Amino acid sequence: MDVSDTIAGQLAARLLADHGAAVTLLRRPSTLVGASPAMDLHLNHTKSVQPCPTGGWQSALGQCARDVDVVVVSDHGEAAIAAGLAPHALVAVATDFADQGPYRDWHGSELIHQALSGSMHYTGLAGRPPLHGTGNRAYIAAGLFLYVSLAARLLARPAAGAVGAVGAVGSTGEIVRVAVHEAAAAMEQNFAVQWAYSATIAQRGELNRPKGRIRCADGWMTVFAMEGRLNELLTAVGADDLVDSPPFSSWSDFMRDIPSAFARIQERARGRSREALLQAALDHRLVMSPVRTPTELRTDPQLLSRDFWRHAEFQGRKHLVLGPLWRPASYEPGAARDTSGGVPAALPTPDRPAGGTAEPGERPLRGTRVVDFTTAWSGPLATRILALLGAEVLKVESASRMDAWRGPADAPTATEFYPNGEPGDRPYNRNAWFNAQNLDKKSVLLDLKTDVGRRQAHDLCRESDLVVTNFTPDTMSRLGLGFDTLREINPSLVMVEMSGFGTTGPLRHHRAYGQTMEAMAGITALIGYDEESGPLGSGSAYLDPMGGLAGAAAAITALAHRDRTRQGQYVEVAQREAAMSWIGDIILDSLATGADPVPRGNAIPTAFPHDAFRCAGEDQWIAIAVHTADQWTALCSELGWTDWARDMSLAETTARKAKAEEIARRLSEATREHDKTRLATRLQRAGVPAAPVHNGRDLFEDPQLRQRGWFAALTHPEAGTHEYAGLPLEAAGRILQPSAAAPLLGQHTADVLESVRSA
């Protein structure tokens, strides 16, 4: 039963409906804050939607409590009520902030959460206000984390076939909580661990890494230059004559003068079309993709070839909707949807195998073994989530082709990722970003190009429940580790393959980096200051953790399918397609109107002021979001603007926007000399949504996260003791803490291989 009126709650319930649960949405008279018809369609088209009865959702739940396994609500008070009415059920709730800590009474919004997360600080151009991004990404992240938590608990709960015996946990139901603030922080935790290792802060602005945008004849491209591929990149843009000339004569020359290099690339690219450059990227294995707008996605050849777009009946009409975030074999969205008009009974669930259950305080994936063939960010984040939930994760590594996030084997140039800026003799064991994403895992060193290495990998898979990979499509099959081979070895094995663009279609082998996938998902086109400066996209590779969340959710869902059917399953996560759901409402609205939104900085239609304003100190900012008349009055009163506080003509957002220049100027003058954190705290106490725009240091020192036990101090044998950021996953009301630092390369090889040989 979904009685929530939050984006996060309704998304979590929709994912349950997508993958077989019979979900009823009881629509209350109150409307979803910030909702549009497109958002309603996107979040609820696989549910049975009914009006809330006269007696309220509490009355409806009381009448059918024994038939409900999950109740999704909107706040902590409702969660307590639902837990009392349905003591056997899981009660799910996503709120802006946790109900403890200094932010517990703060007002949240997308702008506020992105400011606190560290993401906003890193997005935008140096010297200009930082950008919060687009859509409702913080709330979508919270919805996915909530689904992961629910699916893991449902997987772990004992079941005797009868719905009413889904594992009573006492006099009240178990409450599964996620704070949107923490979900947003989890998406950008690399900034905090970088500060913990080297006391350095990632800087905002373009061209401080070998990536950028180029404007071509019919739009924009995003480009990530690669060592060893500069000549091919120059050929693609029609600049063969620049090969071997400064700054392209060597990789070190290029890295020393990235802005100049990209300026010269830009000059030549103006005469090329996006499709010609995309074809060159495919031909030469370049990391380069066109920036697709939302309306262009409808006719995108890759999406059409994969039959991505679907149609759904919703509220008496047929609508175009996005495809799924992940695709199990023979997937049919909303297969168990009930349209009979009553709150449906849950699907019957067979008994879990012995040893596969968990009490509320335990980690629900205890007893699950995962073989991890992943690299970089998205795949390792997916398996890190599984490890934190209790799974044993065996990270298979190669000495000749190490995980990209271990960094160079020697002499790395980017020293900010190492303890005190010192790479050491074995830098691949000391990289902050690798060590942050591989907590609680075991490293097994295999040479998969040899018969012995493949045989050892087969042994691991024979004794495991799940395989996760984010290699290029066909790589696993070439290594003799494709799903058809592995299921002969282990018929109950689940395999999740996290490709960039999908395992079929013309882009199946296109190089997939976070920036290139984000560009083709329609997200990059929506982030920027204006049409003239063009699309900037997110500062970090935000799409990578999007893919990681989808991968973890897909894995737990597939394990549940395996437990129900006793059959293994192959699941595909096309990360670009999964990311499109994060802006699904924007895409559907654009397709309905035929018009694409254009970048407008931090402006949104429903709030003003809604922006970042400079504070005391270098590159220090405060985010302020005024959505209501009461918030506007509170802002004016707190800043001493008595004239505007009494001016009722400014109560409406449209009226304030008519005086936008004057309000922005006055507000900029008012914030300039203030400490960003102290001012944000003052405004929040007055009832105004505000937040300091956190950088990596601020994120590491955040008092709310500190009080919540977000950071865990772990000692790594070569990197030393550091604090690592957490994830918004709880057990018995507490944030789950990792128990082991990331592994040394090959640290557990002998022990793991011996254990599977003796099994």
UniProtKB/TrEMBL annotation:
Keyword tags: Transferase
Keyword set includes Transferase: yes
InterPro entries, sorted: CoA-transferase_III_domain, CoA-Trfase_fam_III, CoA-Trfase_III_dom3_sf, CoA-Trfase_III_dom_1_sf
Residue ranges of the region described as Disordered: 333-364, 405-424
GO molecular function: transferase activity
Pfam families the record matches: CoA_transf_3 (PF02515)
Record's protein name: CoA transferase
Protein species of origin: Streptomyces endocoffeicus
